[in-house]
Amino acid sequence: xxxxxxxxxxxxxxxxxxxxxxxxxxxxxxxxxxxxxxxxxxxxxxxxxxxxxxxxxxxxxxxxxxxxxxxxxxxxxxxxxxxxxxxxxxxxxxxxxxxxxxxxxxxxxxxx
Length: 112
What we know:
Elements: H1 5-26, E1 32-36, E2 39-41, E3 45-48, E4 52-57, E5 65-67, E6 82-86, E7 91-97, E8 104-110
Parallel strand pairs: 1-4, 3-8
Antiparallel strand pairs: 1-2, 4-6, 5-7, 7-8
């Protein structure tokens, strides 16, 4: 007994949908750092070379990022603003808020 074509298509489509959902669930989230309560979270963050890290300000005051080695620098980020930087070389990158210098963080970049 064979399955009607429309039922076979629907079953195939359902299987494809499940496979795509599984792939999406397995894909890692892009590296992100939240600025909240005058802290960077997570800190440190570990990424592979070539990764783009995005910082988002969740505080109700502005913050501005600056790498201690000068490799990146953001404008002042108001509440809800984001800044992204792509790390191309392995190493340890320390950074701070240039408005609140006691706020410090670290990005550890591993070889790809």
